[in-house]
Design goal:
With about 150 residues, this protein is of the alpha+beta class. It contains 5 helices and 7 strands.
């Protein structure tokens, strides 16, 4: 169990399990949806409640209901998991070069001829990459320089 600023962090699997139970309001159906049997699912939900120090579900033999804490928690957890999914996609895009910054250093004469169509084409192909254009002194490298961040 990890602690950040006094907050207990749980495993993602437990959060996904809790969301399934919260949506199904039935341990058997949630277990089937998750490809589990009911006892391990119940155990993971109980462990999550113990770690949080709150009861998330009211359980009877016939039904499961979210407590006020459970309703509040499931709403927040959905947002957290959506942000985690977005962060994962952002990392993958950055690793592939689909997003980021590209600094292009060029000499002034390049703006009259070949640079504008190249820049337009690049922006069409890589809209997630921020282009930063920097005019360089004419005695630099003779045309252009690239830096990728």
């Amino acid at each position: 169990m990890n602690h950040y600023a006094g907050v207990t962090t749980t495993e993602l699997r437990q959060l996904e399990y809790f969301i399934a139970v919260a949506e199904e309001l039935h341990f058997g159906r949630a277990a089937k949806r998750l490809g589990l049997t009911q006892p391990p699912l119940s155990q993971q939900i109980r462990q999550l409640e113990d770690e949080l120090g709150v009861r998330l579900l009211d359980r009877t033999n016939r039904k499961v209901r979210l407590t006020d804490a459970g309703r509040a928690y499931v709403a927040e957890i959905r947002q957290v998991l959506a942000r985690l999914q977005a962060a994962t996609e952002t990392a993958r895009q950055a690793a592939s070069g689909a997003i980021g910054k590209l600094v292009v250093g060029f000499v002034g004469s390049a703006t009259y001829d070949w640079l504008p169509p190249v820049i337009r084409r690049y922006q069409d192909v890589c809209p997630g990459v921020e282009l930063i254009l920097r005019e360089m002194p004419t005695n630099s490298n003779g045309g252009f320089t690239l830096w990728y961040h």
